[in-house]
Amino acid sequence: MTAPRASRIGWYARRMARMSPAEAAWRFRDQALKAVWSRRQVSREQIGAGAAARPGERRFTAVLPPHTAAQVPDEARKTVLAAADQLLRGDWEVLGIARTDLAQPDWFRDPVTGRRAPADRYAFRINHRSETETGNVKQVWEVSRLQHLTLLATAWFLSHDEVYARRVADQLGSWRRENPFLSGVHWTSGIEIGIRLISMTWIRRLLDEWPDVADHFEHDEVAVRQIGWHQQYLAAFRSRGSSANNHVIAEAAGQLVASCAFPWFPDSARWRLSAARLLERELVRNTFPSGIGRELASDYHCFVAELALVAAVEAEAAGCPLSDAAWQRLCAMVDSGAALLDERSQPPRQGDGDEGRALLLDAPTANRWPLLLALGEAVFGRLEWWPRTTPDAASAIIPALARTPREAADRPARRPWHFADAGTTILRAARDREPEIWCRCDGGPHGYLSIAAHAHADALSVEVRYGGVDILADPGTYCYHGEPEWRSYFRSTIAHNTVELRGRNQSSEGGPFLWLRHANAREVDVQDIGDAAEWIAEHDGYRSLKPSARHRRCVLLDRASRAVEIVDEIDGSHELRLAFHLGPDVDVHIDGSCAVLRWPTAVTPGEARLELPGQLRWSLHKGETAPILGWYSPGLGRRVPAFTLLGRGRCVAEAPLISRIEFLDVNRSAVPAVTRSAVSWRAADAAVQAQGRRGEAG
Questions:
Q1: Rounded to a whole number, what is the largest CA-CA distance in the chain?
Q2: Rounded CA gap, 153 and 167, in Å?
């Protein structure tokens, strides 16, 4: 047996072990159906054969109100047209790769490896996880989401310049001809099909006043068949069980949007009802009541909220509104997202992120949260504590479809900072004319569902920012498929600002999207007394060690002295490594157990003193590969060297490791520092003991 085949069989065995019996039964059912459906595969020669629907019944009525384009702000209009002109030249950045071939894209070529993914093979016989077989499949899939075409369609909508519409029509026709039903890599993933349906819907809507649009949609047999095939696929195959994360949201959203906008098929009404119920159910399952995404991956929180909002607006416009409970949860997602952002409207970097978008009507940006908030403001209204948003094309166009804003009850009057259900806490210090100190503390579950596909082994990790600049930084994601050693590093415990024991991750990795054993954290005490805020939590990820160990961490934000203190306690005696990863703008000089941090060229310049635990031996690392250490990923497909401070030693019971970062550019001479008192420790211990007694009594 070859090594790759043995590895693949081992992965399948580990993956099956994380499934419930019901999910395993569904998986076997899907495999049987996929084998039967091989007879339904359509070749390029067959794609135009037969009628897809009765022509007289094909009308597109889900149009935007008159004068919607006039509501788009001038600055947003200019930005869209500039980005569209760049696309016309063929220039575009795709997941960190500068592409110059988007004027006539090869839908199957991966520019990273140079490989070409299968185009004619039966889709369910393609292993899209194999870089050898498909290249970097994220690069291949991304362009076929057709979101660059929704941007071009927006440019036509705003300008009525024929050149944009013609380019959209040419590339749509090319994609449809080269991707017949179940042929090639673009039919291997439901999330891709769902997003592509959203793109097709909005392309048709934005081009509605173009005289030739019907010839490329309702009067085009291939176009109609493609829209039908996409929906047939989603009706038959969807993510279930341990895979029912953001993928199932995208599948349900795509099906709902298309079945509302293109009700041309005998099954359209059934598809619409089924998709709406699926979206309502899975939206609640995928989020905590607070609105935080259960995947505990900030990027996917935004992605899921955007997908569900786009679908909810579509259903509202079609006269088939989602339930009030679904709208309420959507509003909570937007409000909680607004509460997490720092002073520059940047989200946490927790967990995986792949820059996924539900719909692209504006020029793409690295941070999509301001765009989502602008849309949320148009749909739900803005709360007083929200960060300011700038209206863009999407926030003017998408809500116009539903026409009537939604109202949600029980929205927070003040900005929340502690989300107990998700174990997420944001500690802040901000005064007039001073940069904000922002600190995220992770004291929640490992991730969502049994495989926790997009989680990192980051229990009790912290992020610290100064005026929006990463000081103690989360590393990001960098890659999904291929480069397994890099995928493992960016998800590992040592890549995060937390403690690693005996060279092991807190959670056990079983594959690039599979965790076999989960470390779960719980918050012990969280309080804010004005001059200071304190967070205490612990996790169970090292209970399997012999002797077993418990890691408890306290983070104290001292607003008076503008300092953050981190205290780590570990039961037992184990070799440990404590890492502090600095943002790419930060330079560092280390002298023994003291480090001076400077970031003079960042958007908010500053300086800090980081006092490190003297019990550990400290070293400095940057851009190393043997082993990997000292890296920061600004986004998928991109990595840059950044400093890591690494302390090595042995933990000793009742000898806490104390680290303190104090920002030096603020005059604090007349302000006494708030120090950690024995009373605070006793209160935390009492809380733990009381909770233990309650558990025993139960």
A1: 83
A2: 9
Residue 651: is its pLDDT beyond 80? yes
Torsion sign (Cα): 181, 185, 186, 189: positive
Q: What is the CA radius of gyration of the chain?
A: 26
> In this structure, which topology does domain 67-402 adopt according to CATH?
Glycosyltransferase (1.50.10)
pLDDT band at 482 (very low <50, low <70, confident <90, very high): confident
Rounded Cα distance between 321 and 400, Å, is 15
Q: What is the pTM of this model?
A: 0.93
Cα–chain center distance at 179:
28
Q: How far apart are CA 566 and CA 17, in angstroms?
A: 38
Identify the pLDDT of residue 54: 53
CATH number of 418-697: 2.70.98.70
Do residues 129 and 481 lie in contact, with contact meaning Cβ atoms separated by under 8 Å? Answer: yes
Instruction: Specify which residues 539 forms β-bridges with.
Output: 521, 551
The dihedral region occupied by 423, where left means phi > 0, alpha psi between -120 and 50, and beta the remainder, is left
Do residues 397 and 64 make contact, with C-beta atoms less than 8 angstroms apart?
yes
Report pLDDT digits (tens) over 612-625: 999 999 999 999 99
Q: Is the distance from CB of 562 to CB of 429 less than 8 angstroms?
A: yes
Are 620 and 643 in contact by the 8 Å Cβ rule? The answer is yes
Query: Can you give the residue ranges of every domain in the chain?
Result: 67-402, 418-697
